Amino acid sequence: MLVNILLLCAGLAVLVFSADKFVYGASAFARNLGLPPMLIGLTIVAMGSSAPEMFVAATASMDGMNDTAIGNVLGSNIANITLILGLTALLGAISVSSKTLKREIPLMLAATVLAGYLIHDGILARYEGVILLMAFLSVMGWFIYQAMNNKEADIMGEEMDAEIPKDVPTTRAIMWIVIGMVLLPLSAGWMVDGAVGIAKIYGLSDLVIGLTIIAVGTSLPELAACIAGVLKKEDDLAIGNIVGSNLFNILAVLAIPGLISPGTVDASAIDRDFYMVLATSIALAVLVLSSGAKQQLTRWHGILLLLTFIAYQYVVFTAH
């Protein structure tokens, strides 16, 4: 038991560290190439925040643990909105004014509906993994087009510009990219091994361990980014991190088990957990897009989101 806990904790710590350094190096390298800050933020930074989920999903899928990989995606998206945004909103009201973000949220909802349609029959086939991957590449293409051609000023672009590292030597940026790429799969393996060991001791299913311990662990980079964003008064960037991560998770990360190890999907993931992802995504859209003139998440919203997270965790564990 102690070995499994140490593996899980070490894997989680190194996973968070390596994801952060990978994003640091990749975004600094992209800035040195002269790419626009909005493009860097919408692609490299957003992908980097989902890197833990990507490598955990790949590791679990190669081990034949599809339910852990799928549970990680669904659980991470639920945790991002209920736990991460809930905790962040407790620090103070989060205002939303970015037009880019308001276009990104409907995309997240559309991606969630697409994923639900593909898995509703209880099977995630390889061709469905290809569909998700193609949808992801299409979204990336749209982001790139918008960032390169939209000259209209956007508050989120200004916030991204402030966060992307400046004056980092290219050699150092590349060094951190390489270190991140080496440590990410290694730490993901440790984390999955530790979580599986704990799950076996307590009799938890692969799905439950993916929905809970692994999902919360891989969402920690979003928690750090959101809290830092709000403390720096970069509210749009904080919510943008959540929306971008959820969009990438549901398309790019969910495609991984379909491509590597296609097969059946646990019925609970379809009948319970997917609908929780859909409900929380719709709730976020309503709160952000229909919250009146101020368009902000308040502390009361944060409390409601946290209570939702606690209730969901209770349901998952008691239903097991």
UniProtKB/TrEMBL annotation:
It is found in: Membrane. It holds the Pfam family Na_Ca_ex. The chain crosses the membrane at residues 35-57, 69-93, 130-148, 173-192, 204-231, 237-262, 274-293, 299-317. Its main location: membrane. InterPro entries: K/Na/Ca-exchanger, NaCa_Exmemb, NCX_ion-bd_dom_sf. The keyword Nucleotide-binding does not apply. Residues 5-144, 174-317 form the Sodium/calcium exchanger membrane region domain. It is a multi-pass membrane protein. The keyword Nucleotidyltransferase does not apply. Keywords: Membrane, Transmembrane, Transmembrane helix. This is Calcium/sodium antiporter. It comes from Shewanella aestuarii.
